[in-house]
Amino acid sequence: MDVAHHAAAAGADAIGLVFYPRSARNISDLGLAREIAQAAGPLINVVGLFVDPAPADVERVLSAVPLSTLQFHGEESEDFCSRFSRPYWKALRMKPGLDVSAQASLYLSASGLLLDAYHPEMPGGTGEKFDWQRIPPSLPRPLILAGGLDPTNVATAVETVRPWAVDVSGGVESAPGVKSPSLIEEFIVRAKAVRISLN
User: Fold this and answer.
1) Distance (Å, rounded) from C-alpha 151 to C-alpha 110?
2) Total domain count for the chain?
3) Which CATH number covers residue 181?
4) CB contact burial 114-152 (16+ within 10 A = b; e otherwise)
């Protein structure tokens, strides 16, 4: 809860809660998830991350946690993603040979497309970058850049890719699953400083 409050105070636009049992960052206690979401305050976008969930699992979380946005990080269809009466982001893992534009065109109802590094055994949170040159010059929905970002490279990422937003998890951790308030603040300051200079 303290980390969520600190992130909001540092200028974060969103916080993410992971509801994927195989993740080290999974939040199985929905009461705790609700408290974290509320600690972020009323102006922060609270994003719930799912990977190929059953519909009932998403509904169970939504009944207990005030999520603003859903993020689907698996092989979910557009019909599935759009059935929960919430804005959603569709994550595309940058697998070699992926036709990004073609995949993006399948999710025109998404409020954003999150591009992340590909790992054959992990759907996200790998801490690995991908080649930003593979990103098409235009996408049908706003781009959220993820994959291996941290305070040392986020300014370059924003300047090079010019995404709508950047997403970070492991890059602001002092240990696996443990967020560092100082790294969060440094990440936000560097990302927003470049964003301002580009406008």
Assistant:
1) 28
2) 1
3) 3.20.20.70
4) bbbbbeeeebbbbbebbeeeebeeebebebbbbbbbbbe
Token duo for residue 172: 């602001």
Provide the whole-model pTM: 0.92
Task: Report how far residue 81's alpha carbon sits from residue 55's, in angstroms, rounded to the nearest whole number.
Answer: 10
Per the structure, the complete domain to which residue 7 belongs is given by 2-198
Q: Is the dihedral of CA 126, 127, 133, 138 positive or negative?
A: positive
41 burial (CB, 10 Å; 0-12 / 13-18 / 19+) is middle
pLDDT digit string, tens, across residues 150-169: 999 999 999 999 999 999 99
CA–CA dist 130, 128 (Å, integer): 7
**pLDDT of 72-121, one tens digit each?**
999 999 999 999 999 999 999 999 999 999 999 999 999 999 999 987 66
Q: In this structure, which amino acid lies at residue 60? A: R
Q: How many CA within 13 A on the CB side of residue 34?
A: 9
